[in-house]
């Protein structure tokens, strides 16, 4: 079984090298690596030049940002494998990563989507053996940071919706499409993806806030496609989620100033990560309400 590993990336010159290096050091031999560069404005091309000597490595640069959905679709169109594995460019893996995905698909010859766990790490040189915390739990039907699917099934369901051209929800949309098509989702517990998720400095925090605003815009499009209560739960557009977030943020106590102080404190990684997640969820929910108001005013 030939495997195509498709990796979209944008402005990740510091970490893309390690991501790809982990893939070219796999214990499985029949694979190719396709990196689709989503209009990076940094030195991503230079960071990847050492891999040009590998016959199974391809780098596809885009002249402008098109979004991860477009990049993944392009990667699959250019691929030659029977099985496609998607990972994000801030994911690091162990040498048995591909073979773990392949093993699951050999056990399910009728065709499934397989989703592996993603564990957050704070250091680029962290040992890749850390157990996950409750914050790493995901029950997603499909999560593009670490998932695999037979290429023919991907083509049959028409891939990702490229209207999702900024951050967020394109993989959830794809999962809903797979589920509606009767494609079963299974777990691959041994194919762990280690998500490099450093705690942000001030500039990094601003970038994360902007990503949450993009995620809100994408959520609204997802809801337009699927105006169901199930999707409202997914995008957290319920009274319960709004009240819960108010409680967790101390009714506004966890604001940008305080989250900066928490990030500078000597508290542990999971403590800081928890409150950062709570704060960013608040930003997302506020942005979602603003986007809905704009839509209602236009309507």
Structural description of this entry:
The chain is of the alpha/beta class and 299 residues long. The protein folds into two domains: 3-196, Spore Coat Polysaccharide Biosynthesis Protein SpsA, Chain A (Alpha-Beta Complex); 202-298, no CATH class. It is built from eleven helices and ten strands. The chain has helices spanning 16-24, 44-47, 68-78, 97-107, 151-156, 170-180, 202-225, 229-234, 239-248, 256-264, 269-298, and strands at 3-9, 31-37, 57-61, 83-87, 91-92, 112-115, 118-121, 146-150, 184-187, 193-196. Strands 3-2-1-4-8-6-9 form a seven-stranded mixed beta sheet, with helices on both faces. Strand 2, helix 2 (44-47) and strand 3 (57-61) form a beta-alpha-beta unit. The radius of gyration is 19 Å and the shape is globular. The model has no long low-confidence stretch (mean pLDDT 93).
């Amino acid at each position: 079984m030939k495997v195509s590993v498709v990796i979209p990336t944008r402005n990740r010159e510091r970490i893309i090298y390690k991501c790809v290096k982990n893939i070219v050091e796999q214990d499985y031999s029949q694979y190719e690596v396709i990196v689709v560069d989503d209009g990076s404005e940094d030195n991503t091309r230079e960071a990847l030049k050492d891999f040009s000597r590998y016959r199974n490595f391809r780098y596809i640069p885009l002249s402008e940002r098109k979004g991860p959905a477009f990049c993944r679709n392009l990667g699959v169109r250019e691929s030659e494998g029977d099985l496609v594995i998607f990972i994000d460019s801030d994911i690091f893996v162990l040498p048995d990563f591909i073979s773990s995905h392949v093993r699951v698909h050999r056990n399910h010859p009728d065709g499934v989507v397989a989703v592996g766990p993603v564990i957050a790490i704070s250091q680029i040189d962290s040992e890749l053996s850390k157990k996950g915390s409750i914050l790493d739990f995901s029950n997603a039907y499909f999560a593009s940071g670490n998932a695999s699917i037979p290429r023919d099934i991907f083509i049959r369901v028409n891939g990702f919706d490229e209207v999702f051209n900024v951050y967020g929800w394109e993989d959830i949309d794809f999962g809903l499409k797979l589920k509606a098509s009767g494609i079963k989702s299974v777990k691959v517990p041994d194919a762990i993806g280690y998500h490099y998720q450093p705690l942000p400095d001030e500039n990094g925090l601003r970038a994360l806030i902007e990503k949450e605003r993009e995620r809100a815009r994408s959520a609204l499009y997802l809801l337009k496609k699927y105006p169901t209560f199930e999707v409202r739960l997914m995008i957290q557009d319920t009274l319960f989620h709004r009240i819960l977030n108010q409680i967790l943020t101390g009714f506004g106590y966890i604001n940008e100033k305080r989250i900066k102080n928490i990030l500078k404190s000597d508290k542990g990684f999971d403590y800081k990560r928890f409150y950062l997640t709570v704060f960013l969820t608040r930003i997302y929910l506020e942005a979602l309400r603003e986007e809905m108001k704009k839509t209602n005013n236009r309507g």
